[in-house]
Structures are given as C-alpha cells and as structure tokens.
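User: structure tokens for L-ascorbate peroxidase, please.
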Amino acid sequence: MAGRVSLTRSTSLASPTKMAALASSPFIFPSRTTPSFSFASSSPTSLSSLKCLTSFSPISHLFFNQAQRRTQVRLSNGAYSTVFTPKSFASNPDQLKSAREDIRQLLKTKFCHPILIRLGWHDAGTYNKSIEEWPQRGGANGSLRFEVELKHAANAGLVNALKLLQPIKDKYSGLTYADLFQLAAATAVEEAGGPKLPMKYGRLDVSGPDQCPEEGRLPDAGPPSPADHLRQVFYRMGLNDKEIVALSGAHTLGRSRPERSGWGKPETKYTKDGPGEPGGQSWTVQWLRFDNSYFKDIKERKDEELLVLPTDAVLFEDPSFKVYAEKYAEDQEAFFKDYAEAHAKLGNLGAKFDPPEGIVIDDGSPKPQPEKFEAAKYSTGKRELSDTMKQKIRSEYEAFGGSPDKPLQSNYFLNIIIIIGVLALLTSLLGN
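Assistant: Done. Predicted tokens:
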C-alpha cells in the first residue's frame, strides 16, 4: 500500500482559558443566514495561535503517496527532521487504540464530550451524496483542520476542540485527522454513558485547504421551516427521518451560549456551577450524561430552564418525526440502538478508506459464556431425570446459593447429605 509524507509544525499549542469548559452541542450547525449556533464554552481563541492548522502556512498538512513506508517531516528549531515509521494503512491500528485511551483521559479532566462530538459531526456533515468524486463530495476527510473551513459560521468555537486534540495528534503520527475526529466523537458518546458504536477507521485526509467544502452545507438552528430544512440537509447526506431524529438525541449533551450562538440563556441553575466554565443553557438537566432525557424533556416542556430550539420542537410536531421521537422518549434501548447505527453511518459519509474495508479496533471475539445449569450434572444416577425432577433439583440447588449460570463450587448432593446428617444429629441430641 502507498504511504504519505506529512508536513506539520511542531510548535506547541497554548490551552484556551478554562479548557475544561468546552462543552458544546453536537448536533445543530449554524450558517451565516441565521444567528450563530455554537456551544463551545470557553472564551474565543484567535485562529492565529493555531499555526499548525492554518491554511495559509507554508508548512501545511500535505500528504503524498510513497511506496513501502510512511515518512513524516517536522519543522523543529528551523530545521527539518525526518521520521520513518513502518507502512501500515491510513491510520495505525495500535496507535488508534492508544489514542482512544488518551481521549478517555482527556474527557475525564476537561468534560469536553459535547464539543468533540460536534467536531466529528461537522467534519462528516458536509457530505453530498450527489457528488461522486473524493474529496469534492465532502464528508469525514479531516478538512475541518484548515482555517478556511474553521471560519465557517457553523464551526464557531471548534478551534478549541482542535487545540484539545492536537497534542494527541502530535503524539501519534500514524493517525489521520479524519480518524482522530471520528474516534474522539465516538469515544465521547460511549464515555458519557451512550451506546457502543460500530465504528471503523482508516480514513484518508485531504491534502490542503483548497479541498475544503464550500460554506453552507450544515443545518441551521432556527430556519423558517424546521422540518423541511432538516430533511433538505440530511437527505442530501443520504440520511432518513429515523436517523434525523435519532441523531437529534445527541442534544442530551451540551449547552448553548447566547453570546456565541444567539440562542439560550446566559446561565441556568443546571449550568451556573459548571463543570468547567459555568454558564449557557442545556437541553437536559444532566447535560454530560448520554441517555434519552432529551426526548422526554422536549415532549413534556415543563422546565423553563431547559432549552428547546425550533429544530427540537419540530420532532414532536412533524408526523413522521414524531413517531420516532415518541418511541425514543419511552424506550431508551431503542434510541441507543438507532443512534449507534446512525452515528456510525454519519461518521463514514464521504470517507475514503485505506484499507478499503476499514480498520476495526475493538476485539470482536466472543466472551466466554458462563456454564449453564444442567440438572443431570448433579445426579450420580445413569437414568435420565424427568422434567419434574430436574425442576425440583434446580429449585433446591438455587436455594443453596446456586444459579442457572453459576453452579455451586462444591458437590450439590454431598451438601444435602451433610445437612441431613447434621439435622439427624441435632434431633438425636434434643431427644436425649
């Protein structure tokens, strides 16, 4: 397989003020035609400080094909140094696993689950199914790392998510930005209590800012006709009504800040104390826990402290959307199942994989099953036991601490004999 050369600047990135507060909504993407809808909680950060991500830097992220090996060239103290690593695929499976552990630690300290989900979604959400060519079709290709796309109104504040992940990217050279964004989003969902996502990796990165999609492919928060707008945007990606509603459920995480998005309150009783930088308005009470609270709260509309956007309310107003929203409000397991499928599908949109089948980093081997209860195992007789006798033995067996999935460690009938002997001895003593 072919390798690539990556030219990056090794300059370290300064952390934004109170980076722990980078909770943001993962779902809605604003445009310039409506109030900005971005939920990053930290103070605005100058793009000029993110030199390794700028599209104007001569040391941009350029990738070239090369046989048998991958070469990474870094600029350090004014000089280039070349590091050779064995060629595998677009991303190294071992480094993907290690990076996931680093992301888990990041989530524990920075509480940045929502903004990492938003980052992955925004990179993938530019996909246009009517365009066949890569990368013109958009999608999960790492283009969001370039300044020209970061400046899109829908991506306001996502520079902070890039700054959170850049140290991990620097640590793992055998990892593409496209994979890193999707890995971070999936890990954030799972670590917040959400479902296990059937993700695959091996996405290729675009080579430069000229390959970024044009602005305007992402949804708005408050369009004149919310249902029509959602369908227009998500149908373009190849997603259906069920997937639109399921993905909307990710609003169970995050907050909206009016000074950045034009939506929400400056703070509520649920956000005034953080975690991280306080403030903003959340959709749910526990806005860092992934569950089906979003659908319950939108349906009831009883708590004025919780946010309801036009694109949220329409889920219970549009007849087709309402079928799924009602279902998810009542059945979290159904929501988790549909969300996991929709999220994985979104993360693959427009991606070009190397290897073509992708890389799965989760161990798919079946877990050992506990031993099942079989009554015949606890009988020394050769004759097959009747169903009635099996049930009786099973009941007695469970009464002594066994279970259908966990046989007693000691011999069952030996225990019975011992107990009978003890009872006989006690009876004899009492009789005397």
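User: Anything notable?

Assistant: Residues 1-23, 28-86, 365-371 have pLDDT under 50 and may be disordered.
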